[in-house]
Amino acid sequence: MSQTVTSSTMLRRQIGRKFEALRKSAGLTMEQAAERLDRARATLHRIESGAESVRFRKPDVEQMLRLYHASPEDAEVLLAMTAATRENKNWWHDYIGSGLPRWFQLYVGLEASAASIRQYEAELIPGLLQTRAYAEQVFRLPGGFGNHQDRAEHERALEARAQRQRLLTRFAPPQLDLMINEAVLRRVAGSPAIMNEQLRQIIKAAELPNVTLRIVPFSAGLHAGAMSGAFSILDFPRDSNGEALEPTITYLEAPTGAVYLDKPHETEVYNAIWSEMAGCALDEQESRDLIEHVEQEYRYA
Q: Where does the HTH cro/C1-type domain start and stop, copy by copy (predicted)?
């Protein structure tokens, strides 16, 4: 990975998989391991799932390694990896619970670690492209990030959104491929002036070398995205052997939480949806032409 900012979430998930493999190799269920370690099963589940809330104390790590009969090589690797989590702090940690909901923390970390992101949006401008004024309108809705009645938290949510957007212009940014429903362009958030600014921002973002943007027009008729709703597919960097550091993850979001799909058959379904939609979306130039046309409508509204 190119930047230390991308490492914490993936590092924790790799630690979790290693501990899970050692536990299973030792012939222990999660319940048995939790009992022998005198810990709650939920704690072990958080460790094995790579939760960022876990704090790895060296004595606790050593206790797990002994119980799992880890080899000296595995023990050395896991002690080094868990020590690294104590040294790394990602920007979003300062916003969790105040500006970013806790359930969104995992996605922000995965997004920062991804090599490529494919995203379909059916209702809203993608968060990575939203202007401050547009995001303000979104965050005021029930179910928007933060307490929409608390001005301080509302401001923190806007700050966090701006921090996320730096992802696209950092060193070695991910490839972002977007497909957006035409309705998103035409649904007014706040005022025509806000939408005019927002569409100009989309046009500017689409000029980045790592961003592609295509519109699914009304003329496409019924398409697979009508069944799926919004989703994001994240692919991750590969190691020196060509193996992905993380399996492909499909992310689905709701107002109170999110679903992460990483089983091969789930990935296959969403890849098929993406491919079907790509076949009915406008190409990049046609998409830009449509965005510019709608932008002019807002300009003179």
A: 19-75
| 225: three-class secondary structure by DSSP | helix
Taking only the tens place, the pLDDT of each residue in 152-171 is 888 888 999 999 999 999 98
Q: What is the extent of the structural domain holding 19?
A: 4-89
When pLDDT is cut at 50, 70 and 90, the band that residue 113 belongs to is: confident
- Single residue among 68, 89, 110 that ends a domain in this structure: 89
Token readout for 251 is 């992310």
Same domain, 277 and 143: yes
Whether 140 and 275 map to the same domain: the answer is yes
Q: If we measure between CA atoms, which residue out of 55, 52, 45 comes closest to residue 10?
A: 52
Of 47, 64, 89, which residue constitutes the final position of a domain? 89
How many Å apart are CA 121 and CA 183, to the nearest integer?
10
Crossing angle, helix 7-25 and helix 58-67, to 10 degrees? 30
Non-local (6+) Cβ contacts of 227 within 8 A are 273
- Percent of the chain, pLDDT > 70? 95
Please check whether residues 199 and 143 belong to one and the same domain.
Answer: yes
Q: What is the mean pLDDT of residues 170-194?
A: 96
Q: Same structural domain for residues 80 and 203?
A: no
* CATH code assigned at 254: 3.30.870
Label residues 206-223 b or e (16+ Cβ within 10 Å = b).
beeeebbbbbbbeebeeb
Distance CA 299, CA 281 (A): 25
